[in-house]
Amino acid sequence: MNKKQVRNILDTIGGMFPDAHCELNHANPFELTIAVLLSAQCTDETVNKVTASLFQKYKKPEDYIAVPIEELEQDIRRIGLFRNKAKNIQALCVLLLNKYGGEIPEQHEQLVELPGVGRKTANVVMSNAFGVPAIAVDTHVERVSKRLGMANLKDTVLEVEKKLMKLVPKEEWTLTHHRLIFFGRYHCKAQNPQCDVCSLVEGCREGKKRMKSGSRRKPIQ
To answer: Which ranges carry the HhH-GPD domain (predicted)?
Structure first.
């Protein structure tokens, strides 16, 4: 894919979603980290419903470890994998207090050492909380990147991230991350992409199949 093609994709999606942003409600890096941890295999909408009360009850790491694990589990039980996430949250808070003075570290290699925090979560925190350019590849970013040919169908999440980092100007990494998410969440959906009204359909693997056949084939995930 050449620079002109990439620019067209970025500009088109940017025109559709100029105000794309992180939809997880948070007031500080600590709350963002907890919210992203909770969002694994769960919608942002559900996470925001849970954190509306969670962040009122728990303000700092000490608060999360001051309650029995069963109580925290109940507070987040509407979230998928809530037991494992409650365990990770308490372990994360213990580590923050023991090693980082209760504050979320700003270095990527330190973030990924936190329980429940993987590369995607670390990238989201780095970019949204600390203003460091990063591209976090979630299910939407992966799907859209592969459909539009910015990555290969068999690429791993890490390979998709590396290819996007090469294709997209560094100063646009964070904004592109948000716009790709919005594009995938509200337009290029997994099951029912809006191919018939999409300006990028001619360069889209899934779109070309659908428009050519006129049928709903199994989408590229």
So the answer is: 38-186
Residue 215: is its pLDDT beyond 60? no
Amino acid, res. 58: Y
Residue 188, annotated as binding a ligand: yes
Q: Is 42 annotated as a binding residue?
A: no
Which residue range(s) make up the domain with 120? 29-130
Asked if residues 194 and 204 have their Cβ atoms less than 8 Å apart, the reply is no
Question: Which active-site residues does the annotation give?
Answer: 120, 138
Whether residues 47 and 120 fall in one domain: yes
From 86, 113, 130, the end of a domain falls on 130
pTM over 0.90: no
Residue 220: the pLDDT is 46
Residues 121 and 58 in one domain: yes
191 HSE (CA, 13 A, CB side): 0
Q: How many domains does the chain have?
A: 2
**93 annotated binding-site participant:** no
Does residue 213 carry a pLDDT above 80? no
Residues 194 and 143 in one domain: yes
